[in-house]
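$ ./design --mode recover --in tokens.txt
reading tokens...
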């Protein structure tokens, strides 16, 4: 089986870190580059976290690690350290290998270079705010159009938001960037809260699997997910966590995990109460002049969780 060339754009974050482990342990994907963007934490912390995960998994054939935007296109940065810890890894980064000191190329250049090099074979999995992708699009739309597909975790189509009443975090942080990417006309799959809120992983199961595996990597995963799960216990009432970003990687591995609808989705960036809200045209006959994207509307929960655990504890 030939593996798909993939670029991951991330504001790593606890669920982003699980998504990276899933991606790097999956033979269907060949991770060519990981680009970082400000979101859950500052971008410099994101870059260090990516290096930590690569070291933890002892990745020999290292993807390019590139650093991107330190703030959204127009609005000030909003972070989520109450969910992901001050370091972005549940304040457990001391338990992970230290990042090595290296110079990182620019995320926008790396995105454009990968689009140029791999063309329609390339999948971009974007699991943070879409700032880097929007900047790459503004810089060179002709080259960006070569990408095979962008899978973006973001939006809340018919469900409440997780950042205020109507918005999902990634699109809330940079609604202008989300607007640009969703209207670019390149093939896009949106993985919104509608599907990511249908799957949780329970703390008990994480503990059971990590202890059975008992590798350094498994115990580190257990450690850096601890406070993320405590946050869910305090705010949602269950002892576990959502798998937002791992689901986007899951769909890159196996697109048949989700059922999608092809619709026009836009993102509100000017509203006084609706910043980052996704506005979706669910009518059967949408305006043909508007570009459409594939929105995930259902997820095969059992099959996704099986894939997640199979790869996370490898
Ligand atoms: C998204 O927001 C971030 O906090 C998570 O990493 C995920 O990408 C979920 O709304
Ligand atoms: Ca994320």
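writing sequence...
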């Amino acid at each position: 089986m030939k593996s798909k060339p993939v670029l991951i754009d991330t504001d790593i974050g606890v669920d982003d870190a699980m998504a990276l482990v899933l991606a790097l342990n999956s033979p269907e994907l060949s991770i060519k580059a990981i680009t970082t963007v400000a979101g859950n934490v500052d971008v410099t912390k994101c870059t260090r976290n990516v290096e930590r995960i690569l070291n933890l998994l002892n990745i020999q054939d290292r993807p390019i690690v590139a650093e991107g935007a330190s703030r959204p296109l127009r609005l000030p940065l909003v972070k989520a350290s109450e969910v992901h810890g001050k370091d972005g890894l549940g304040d457990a980064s001391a338990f992970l290998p230290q990042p090595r000191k290296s110079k990182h190329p620019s995320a926008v250049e790396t995105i454009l270079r990968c689009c140029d090099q791999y063309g329609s074979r390339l999948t971009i999995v974007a699991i943070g705010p879409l700032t880097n992708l929007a900047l790459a699009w503004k810089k060179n739309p002709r080259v960006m159009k070569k990408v095979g597909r962008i899978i973006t975790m973001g939006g809340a189509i018919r469900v409440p938001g997780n950042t205020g009443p109507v918005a999902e975090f990634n699109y809330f942080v940079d609604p202008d960037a989300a607007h640009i990417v969703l209207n670019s006309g390149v093939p896009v799959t949106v993985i919104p809260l509608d599907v990511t809120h249908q799957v949780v992983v329970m703390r008990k199961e994480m503990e059971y699997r990590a202890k059975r595996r008992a590798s350094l990597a498994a115990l580190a995963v257990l450690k850096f997910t601890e406070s993320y799960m405590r946050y869910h216990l305090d705010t949602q009432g269950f002892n576990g966590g959502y798998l937002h970003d791992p689901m986007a990687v899951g769909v890159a591995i196996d697109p048949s995990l989700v059922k999608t609808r092809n619709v026009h989705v836009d993102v509100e960036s000017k509203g006084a109460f609706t910043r980052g809200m996704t506005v979706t045209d669910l009518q059967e006959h949408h305006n043909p002049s508007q570009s459409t994207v594939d929105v995930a509307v259902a997820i095969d929960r059992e099959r996704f969780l099986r894939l997640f655990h199979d790869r996370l504890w490898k």
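exit 0
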